[in-house]
Specification:
Chain B: Keywords: Biological rhythms, Cytoplasm, Leucine-rich repeat, Nucleus, Repeat, Ubl conjugation pathway. The structure holds two protein chains of two kinds. By secondary structure, chain A is mainly α. Chain A contains 23 helices and five strands. Among the domains of chain A are: 126 residues, HUPs (Rossmann fold), CATH 3.40.50; 150 residues, DNA Cyclobutane Dipyrimidine Photolyase, subunit A, domain 3 (Orthogonal Bundle). A five-stranded parallel sheet of chain A has the order 3-2-1-4-5, sandwiched between helices. In chain A, α12 packs across α17 and α16 packs across α17. Chain B starts with 20 loop residues before the first helix and ends in a 12-residue tail after the last helix. In chain B, the strands form two sheets. In chain B, strands 1-2-3-4-5-6-7-8-9-10-11-13 form a twelve-stranded parallel sheet. In chain B, strands 12-14 form a two-stranded parallel ribbon. Chain B is globular and about 85 Å long. Chain B has 15 helices and 14 strands. The chains are: A mainly alpha, B alpha/beta. Chains A and B meet through α12, α15, α17, α18 and α21 of A and α3, β1, β2, β3 and β7 of B.
């Protein structure tokens, strides 16, 4: 009996650096690469047209690449737990491979499939290639808990073994004699569907600004590296008006879908750096984008409640407002603040916005102006944003709303000022909000302040052709900073006057709350220096999550901020709610 | 849970039906006698004071379940000492994610423990119903003498949506009946001058803390009345429009105790709003009278509205700029705020604040906390700043984008330099780059 194998594509939609696929092929007689379209899989029900289109592009690209290897992609509709038993039988499968999925739902789904595979005597081959590291090892290194600050995460990364090299690309040489049985009706039964077939209205749909697929991803990688080499500067580029627009070297959606291997990107960046900077060691900041992604994957992997506030041990319980009307205005770009509306408009049209634009709209929705829960914003991004996967999206929203990760909340992005400072001329607004095109730069960020003549001349009366601002920003931000302060004072049991000290101190510190003492000034190696080690070891006694839990579980009454001398009832603990069971 | 809520128990205690009470008694007595014989500690002998002490450590829900164990524990559960303070959380499911205090619990508290309450706060969400419910409870607190009352909005200020008279009449119930109010927190409420007069008439001897930021119906005369009569006032929070020279003089009068904290919110309703000035002599009087007092100021102004501010020396200790503030104003801060302890700048813009920061390091010798948001500072100037402040900087919260690399320092080594001068490991605040 020969070896008949299935490789199950979920993310990792590529043939380069695909170790589970490579392992699967070794010694196999037949190979079938499948993609299961599971519309009921958690999260995918809330997917907009741009995301579907990107995915379909990826699948088409995979199919085209597989054709060159005398193989094809098999797209199968249904739920994995229904699909697999059928396939195991029909195709006489005895081997199954897939890329490791670190997300809680992924792990649960894969555990169920593993069970089915065991029952059908199917060998399962899993390899890690969606993240740089084995996330469980990072967690182990941190005493069994995921790191709760990015700094701590970086310190742990420094202590990990080197990133594994990308696996060799699947070529004809790799496949050798492994064949794929392709029927004449393959396109009908297993072909990649079109947007129309999935039920989308495609009339008037503009060309994708972000075309999906591995081929496109690899091309972009080359362009991205070329640009970096040409600039010979690996610093984070200064933000300017141009940065807001979609870049032909942007890589985040390709990393999310796995069209581009993060490890390939990592090694290419390292090689380029060494070449340009004459063999010096690359700093961690070079891999910023990749490490943030890794950080959120690590924090999320063991936390199925990561995308909620309720029941999420790393999330501060903030009394957000429920306001569907206000939420809709934000989601649909009708807030009356051109900066916010233009960003949401670009997001809806193209599926990508610059990370500072994300900060602006996230702040506006949550702690800045509307005081609406980050969970709502996360759902909107999930629908519209190409590079938002579960862990990164939820983690980023918690970060941006100051709901976790010990973030300072004092800096509030002004929906007028921030935009104006980024793009003083207002071209971005004119591009994505054509109704305001004729406004002069002076008033384009706050058109409600424009005198009547100006509004008339621009043929756009505020309140008629474009909404009035939905909040008074000064008032809203004043109220909200106070709310955040109330919450954090309760959380940290802080009794002082300062605003900065209300955010609980670095969780790696000991119970005394003082910072790590002593910096070894002898070594000056930068991030890899010895005081980082000290920094890491300190925390293993009282880890981040535990400390946060400890703080949350005590709810002290009366944290009127300036009551340091007039304290009440230090010993009286009252729970937040009396829950009816 | 099939067990009935503790709040539905019978008057004679226990959650079980009456019929089984007889059968419970005998085994208890036998057990107790046996325990006494064997010199074992028995639960029933636990003095109530100890039980009370233990119960104080339990969250309310656990205490409630404990109260169902036996009559003794039920009595302990209802002892006045356990009902001195309570926080009513009033939320509507349609407008909040958080659960509200159970209505049955509220009923029980009002029925059995209203007289025991001394420290009470109301947390309301943004719905009007929640604010109304709070007022409803307030107006029933007729027989309790509250020491502390807090009306806290956790989202939009819903107390402001109530009809003013409705709110005032509920609040005055407490003012009139308590007569020993020490702390009062009524920010974002429609409290007015006459109700403040009632407050003063009944509580002038005991009032120590009054927080009433953003109470638009109060006038400077209204707050002046409070300052004149309540000589024990130690902490005050209000908006700038209520601040006057007379108020500061009143707070510095001989009869007045030392003021500890004064918080002022300077908020602009519309761009181009004009603000009055406070004489330097008034501030000087305050400092002379209360040398250790803390002045906390929150500014939410448009850039062009800072004209009247930071012209003369002002004893501010904690300064927060909630909107963009110009380089010029930050320069003036360095010159006029010698007592500055904490400075937080939400945004400034794209011109480096090098000189301004250095000046602040030089002149504000008490500075121990600084936070910079959307600003720019060159790395060299920043290192200079940290060097000058040294390890008195306990809070240094700088967004990563603030630091502009120059010929001496890049982003990768700046944190090392800064850590050296601070004497601890330091990194700038980061935001995810997705």
């Amino acid at each position: 009996m020969g070896v008949n194998t299935i490789h199950w594509f979920r993310k990792g939609l590529r043939l380069h650096d695909n170790p589970s696929l490579r392992d699967s092929i070794r010694g196999a007689d037949t190979l079938r690469c499948i993609y299961i379209l599971d519309p009921w899989f958690a999260g995918s029900s809330n997917v907009g047209i741009n995301r579907w289109r990107f995915l379909l592009h990826c699948l088409e690209d995979l199919d085209a690449s597989l054709r060159k290897l005398n193989s094809r992609l098999f797209v199968i509709r249904g739920q994995p737990t229904d699909v697999f038993p059928r396939l195991f039988k029909e195709w006489q499968i005895n081997r199954l491979s897939y890329e490791y999925d670190s997300e809680p739902f992924g792990k649960e789904r894969d555990a169920a499939i593993q069970k089915l595979a065991n029952e059908a005597a199917v060998e399962v081959m899993v390899q890690i290639s969606h993240t740089l590291y084995d996330l469980d090892k990072i967690i182990e290194l941190n005493g069994g808990q995921p790191p709760l600050t990015y700094k701590r995460f970086q310190a742990l990364i420094n202590r990990m073994d080197a990133v594994e090299l990308p696996a060799e690309t699947i070529t004809c040489e790799v496949i050798k004699k492994c064949a794929t049985p392709i029927g004449d009706d393959h396109d009908d039964k297993f072909g990649v569907p079109s947007l129309e077939e999935l039920g989308f209205e495609t009339e008037g749909l503009t060309t994708a600004v972000w075309p999906g697929g591995e081929t496109e991803a690899l091309m972009r990688l080359e362009r991205h590296l070329e640009r970096k080499a040409w600039v010979a500067n690996f610093e984070r580029p200064r933000m300017n008006a141009n940065s807001l627009l979609a870049s032909p070297t942007g890589l985040s959606p390709y990393l999310r879908f796995g069209c581009l291997s993060c490890r390939l990107f990592y090694f290419k960046l390292s090689d380029l750096y060494r070449k340009v900077k004459k063999n010096s060691t690359p700093p961690l900041s070079l891999y910023g984008q990749l490490l943030w992604r890794e950080f959120f994957y690590t924090t999320a992997t063991n936390n199925p409640c990561f995308d909620k506030m309720d029941g999420n041990p790393v999330c501060v319980q903030i009394p957000w407002d429920r306001n569907p009307e206000a939420l809709a205005k934000w989601a649909e770009g009708r807030t009356g603040f051109p900066w916010i509306d233009a960003i949401m408009s670009q997001l809806r049209q193209e599926g990508w916005i610059h990370h500072l634009a994300r900060h602006a709209v996230a702040c506006f929705l949550t702690r800045g102006d509307l005081w609406i829960s980050w969970e709502e914003g996360m759902k909107v991004f999930e629908e519209l944003l190409l590079d938002a996967d579960w862990s990164v999206n939820a983690g980023s929203w918690m970060w941006l709303s100051c709901s976790s990760f010990f973030q300072q909340f004092f800096h509030c992005y002004c929906p007028v000022g921030f935009g104006r400072r980024t793009d003083p001329n207002g071209d971005y607004i004119r591009r994505y909000l054509p109704i305001l095109r004729a406004y002069p730069a002076k008033y384009i960020y706050d058109p409600w302040n424009a005198p009547e003549e100006v509004q008339k001349a621009a043929k756009c009366i505020i309140g008629v052709h474009y909404p009035k601002p939905m909040v008074n920003h000064a008032e809203a931000s004043r109220i909200n900073i106070e709310r955040m302060k109330q919450i954090y004072q309760q959380l940290s049991c802080y009794r002082g006057l300062g605003l900065l000290a209300t955010v609980p101190a670095n969780p790696t510190n000991g119970p005394s709350g003082s910072n790590v003492t002593g910096v070894n000034t002898g070594t000056s190696q930068g991030p890899g220096g010895s005081s980082e080690e000290q920094y890491v070891q300190e925390g293993t006694s009282r880890t981040g999550t535990q400390q946060l839990l400890h703080l949350i579980s005590f709810h002290v009454l009366f944290t009127f901020e300036e009551t340091s001398s007039i304290t009440f009832l230090k010993t009286c603990f009252i729970p937040r709610v009396f829950k009816k069971r | 849970m099939k067990r009935a809520l503790p709040m539905n128990e019978q008057e004679d205690g226990g959650g079980t039906n009456g019929g089984s009470q007889q059968t419970l008694k005998r085994p208890c007595k036998q057990r107790r006698e046996r325990d006494l014989e064997e010199n074992r500690a028995c639960w029933e002998c636990l003095p109530q004071e100890i039980l009370l002490h233990i119960f104080q450590y339990l969250p309310l829900l656990d205490r409630a379940y404990a109260s169902q164990v036996c009559r003794g524990w039920n009595q302990a559960f209802h002892m006045p000492e356990l009902w001195r303070c309570f926080e009513f959380e009033l939320n509507q499911p349609a407008s909040s994610y958080l659960k509200a205090t159970h209505p049955d619990l509220i009923k029980q508290i009002i029925k059995r423990h209203a007289d025991h309450l001394q420290y009470v706060s109301f947390k309301v969400d943004s719905s009007r119903e929640s604010a109304e419910a709070a007022c409803d409870i307030l107006s029933r607190l007729v027989n309790c003498s509250l020491k502390t009352l807090g009306l806290i909005s956790t989202a939009r200020p819903s107390f402001m949506e109530l009809p003013k008279s409705h709110f005032i009449s509920a609040l005055t119930v407490v003012f009139v009946n308590s007569k020993s109010l020490s702390s009062l927190k009524i920010d974002d409420t429609p409290v007015d001058d006459p109700s403040l007069k009632v407050l003063v008439a009944n509580n002038s001897d005991t009032l120590k803390l009054l927080k009433m930021s953003s109470c638009p119906h109060v006038s400077p005369a209204g707050i002046l009345c409070v300052a004149d009569q309540c000589h024990g006032l130690r902490e005050l929070a209000l908006n700038y429009h209520l601040l006057s020279d007379e108020l500061l003089i009143a707070l510095s009068s001989e009869k007045h105790v030392h003021l500890e904290h004064l918080r002022i919110d300077v908020v602009s309703e519309n761009p181009g709003q004009q603000f009055h000035t406070i004489k330097k002599s008034s501030w000087d009087a305050m400092v002379r009278h209360s040398p250790k007092f803390n002045l906390v100021m929150y500014f939410f102004l448009y850039e062009e509205e800072f004209g009247p501010f930071f012209r003369d020396e002002i004893p501010v200790t904690h300064l927060y700029f909630g909107r963009s503030v110009s380089k010029d104003v930050l320069g003036r801060v360095g010159l006029t705020c010698p007592r500055l302890v904490e400075l937080v700048v939400c945004a400034n813009g794209l011109r480096p604040l090098d000189e301004e920061l250095i000046r602040i390091a030089q002149r504000c010798t008490q500075l121990s906390a600084i936070g910079l948001g959307e600003c720019e500072v060159s790395c060299s100037a920043f290192v200079e700043f940290v060097k000058m402040c040294g390890d008195r900087l306990t809070q240094l919260s700088i967004m990563e984008e603030v630091l502009v690399p120059d010929h001496r320092y890049g982003l990768d080594d700046i944190h090392w330099e800064v850590s050296k001068h601070l004497g601890r490991v330091w990194f700038p605040d980061m935001m995810p780059t997705w």
